[in-house]
Amino acid sequence: MEVLLFRRDQQHNNDPTSDNIAAHVSDESNSVSDIDTSFDLEEDFRILRDYSLISIGQDGSTFSMHRLVQLSVQTWLKSQGKPEHYKEQFIHTLYETFPSIPDHENKDQCRSLFPHIKAAMLQWPTSDWSLQEWAGMLCRGAMHAHDAGDIRASKEMASKSMEQREKLLGANNLETLSSASVLVQAYLAAGQWAEAENLEIQIIESFKVKFGESHLKTQELMGNLAWIYSTQERWLDAAKLKIRVMEQTMVQVNQDHPSLQLMNNLSIDLRALGHLEKARELGLFALAKHIDKLGEDHPDTLISKCNLALTFAGMEQWEEAESLQIEALETLRVQLGDDHPLTLEAMGFLASTWKALGQTVDALGLLRRCLARAERVLGPDHPKFLQRAEDLLKWEAEESGGDNKS
After folding, report:
1. For the region Disordered, what residue ranges are annotated (predicted)?
2. In terms of CATH architecture, what is 337-406?
């Protein structure tokens, strides 16, 4: 019964079994809950299954509960005055189980637990300690949602996390600033450049007060601000700030080259400013470092490959650009899926290259497929969607004009 009660707070479909959430319950200390955690989870799952209260998935690692069973348990808990008790344990278990730094290496674990984070987002606890864990859990969920391309969830979770941490800990607390940084990334993914810039500046000012301008974390944040300038096509401002950050950080960490992200971003600015040969050299160096450090299939490596391809395109080396873009797009589809924003961006890049190569029919077909997905994933008001939609109209007009002439 304890497993069933705990379970009622979770998402009703595709729930991790004893390999993750439920296994963690068995390790809970009495200080967290007065539940007797000495029960045999495997036996309890068997009993629940035999009574048709839950069903085990074919993969053996997930289970689901019927809606009516879940509703009955919720009603019973309310009658007993216990829902808050189990809600807090559910949040605590998720907080302890979900990776503290979601990344490419633990994405499968994050993906399996993420539906529970979404369910818990709607369940505000009442105690301060549980609210702190709830906010921390949402911050981690927002990071995973961003990496997974779920822009709406990332923005909502990061916003709720920052708001709650600010209430509990203050606006300048490091945990609050951490949530704010995740929200900046969500704003960028959503195409809300002004909101991202304003919030990033606030974060930088807080770090300057706490640690000083030369602190590595402050410099990292200034590098992020430079990238925001790039997204707004403020290329000169971006390049100047990135070079300043690179000089500071390289001296402090005693490196002979800047961070991978800074190298990538600076190559974009150099390309936009017309320094194509310098952009190509830096792009080649950055890609080699990415492959060496992260591997061929890491998303950051694939972004670096796309950036280099755009530099080749700027130099009108279309075959080299096409080759890199096809490699990157195929791997992005496998790693992140067809609907991920990075995959969609790579589709748009390849379509532009095909158009330049005179493969107009293929280019139009790819861009139409890209836009159909992007409208659903990004929304019809996203700047990147609008830019690609404008490209499509222009290409179709050119093609129509060419047909009329013939």
Report:
1. 8-27
2. Alpha Horseshoe (1.25)
Residue 251 has pLDDT above 90, yes or no: no
Judge whether residue 52 has pLDDT over 90. no
Please name the residues in contact with 178: beta carbons below 8 A apart, sequence gap of 6 or more. Answer: 139
In the chain, how many H helices and how many E strands?
19, 3
CA distance 174 to 163: 13
CA 288 to chain CA mean position, Å: 24
For 192, the token pair is 């809300």
User: Which pair of structure tokens corresponds to residue 65?
Assistant: 């509960």
Q: Do domains 1-97 and 337-406 have the same CATH topology?
A: no
Instruction: Give me the CATH code for the 1-97 domain, please.
Output: 1.10.10
Distant-in-sequence, close-in-space partners of 164: CB < 8 Å, separation ≥ 6: 131, 134, 135, 138
- At residue 2, the pLDDT reads 46
DSSP H stretches of helix in 35-150: 41-50, 67-80, 83-97, 107-121, 128-148
d(CA 178, CA 172): 10
Structure tokens at 204: 């930088």
- CA 21 vs. chain centroid, Å, equals 22
Phi, psi (degrees; rounded to nearest 5) at 146 = -60, -50
